[in-house]
Structure formats: structure tokens, C-alpha cells
Amino acid sequence: MGTVQVQPHDRTARTRVREEQVRPLYAATLAALGAEPGTRVLHVGCGTGTALSLVAFTGADLAGTDPSADLLSMARDRLPDVDLRAAETTELPYDRGCFDQVMAFDAIQYAASPAVAVTELARVTRPGGIVAIGLWHNWSGREASAFLSAVRGRVPTPPTEGPPVHDLFRLREVMVEAGLDVFASAEVTHRHDFASLDDAWNSMTASPNVARAIQIMGIEAAHEIFMANFATMQRTDGSIQQEHLFQYALGRATS
Asked: Which end of the chain is more exposed for a tag (fewer CB within 10 A), N or C?
């Protein structure tokens, strides 16, 4: 069994790792959206631009927002011709009805007010346009679920307005409350192989919940919890296999 190196948290690198894991969710949702040349597409919480890079092949007119200047800097390097702006999910710098399609992945569940965030996505979508929201399911992967549950039990839970959005049922509720006509939803399963414990650790530290725990309890304490849940899962070649469950819903803007 290899030894995991406990390194300082590098949000940009970790986010890139996490985006690669979420790629199956991006691909399935984008296929359902079916953007075409000239379609105005906004990705809210675009991170380093992985999902936008996939949409770029359609010829759509792209834009993205993210609250992190560091992540946007990497996204700009990858997508120099895309309109990328620093903004919070709940306060988008666009007029009403600017976009044909607005998407957010693995972001709404971390908003202090998910209902406000989804309402803002709907606001910048034209009537008849589509809002697509994807989640990394809260209980995806036995090892990750146990680890994240243990981490959450050690740090205070951030306050949220209303029940948190951790599953498709609650996501559809919030979208309807925001005035969206939810017309489609689906689940996407994907089996991911981490080559080593190092890779698994890098992935887990990209989670906002884990990043917050590291800030509060310290990286060594968070790593101890990680090892308690992951070290015994290593296969003979040092790798770890994990099943992921993603969910997404599509809603049509009505006003």
C-alpha cells in the first residue's frame, strides 16, 4: 500500500480533477440540451472551463461565470474567446432573458439560498429557453459517502435558506418554485478508477465540504478521516474503484 502525501490544498488543481470526474454528467446533459451554432449558452459556476470546452464544439455562443478569479484565469487560458465574468450564482451580471440555455453543475447545492440561485438562472434565460442543473448525488460512492459524512460530522453545517438540494426530488421542487417548467430529468452512473490513494485524496479535497473542513480542522485531521474510509479499499495494483451517481433536470423558462 502506498503512502499518501498530504499536500497543501490547491483549489485550482483540485477543481480541475473534480471537473474531469463530472465529465460524464456534462456530456449527458449537453446531449439533452442539443446546443447548435449561434445558441447563446451560459455556464454558471464554470470553474476551469471543462464543460464550456465541450459545448464549444457545437459552435454555440458561450459565456461563463465563477466567483473564483483563479479558476476563471485557467478558464480564460483554455477559452480565450469566451465571455467569462466573476460573479456569484445568486447575482449574475446579465439582463433578463439574455441566454437560450443556462446550465449549472455541482453548484446549486452549495448556495446559501438554492431557491434564489435557481431563480437567478431562470431570470437570465429567455422565455422558452432551458435551464439545466446537474448534481453529484449526495450518496454517490460508498467510500466517498462515508468520508463526507464523517467530515460533515466534525464541522459546523453552513446555514441555508430552506432544505438543501442534495437529490433530484428536491432539485425539481426548487426549479418549479423558481417558475421553471421541468420537463425532463435523468440519472447518470459512472465507474471511476483512481490510480492511487493520492488521486482519490486530490479528488476528495476538491469538494467544497472537504475544503471547508480542511480550513476548520486542518489538513492532517481531514486526511486521517480520509484514510480511515479509503485505505482499506485499495486493490492489489494500488487503485481504488468508485461508482458515481449524477442527476440532472431540465426546466423551460416561462417568463
From this structure: N
Rounded to a whole number of angstroms, the CA Rg of the chain reads 18
Q: Which residue has the cell 423558462?
A: 253
Which cell numbers hold the place of 178?
A: 423558481
114 to 33, 110, 117, 139, 235: CA distances (angstroms): 22, 8, 5, 19, 39
Apex 35 CA angle, 31 and 38, nearest 5: 165
Q: What is the pLDDT of residues 115-144, one digit of tens each?
A: 999 999 999 999 999 999 999 875 555 556
Residue 127 falls in which region: left (phi positive, over 0), alpha (psi -120 to 50) or beta: beta
Task: Give the integer Cα–Cα distance in Å for 239 and 203.
Answer: 14
Confidence of residue 197 (pLDDT cuts 50, 70, 90): confident
Three-state SS at 225: helix
Place of cell 440519472: 187
**Beta-carbon contacts of residue 23 (< 8 Å; ≥ 6 apart):** 50, 54
Query: Is residue 81 a contact partner of residue 104, using CB atoms and an 8 Å limit?
Result: no
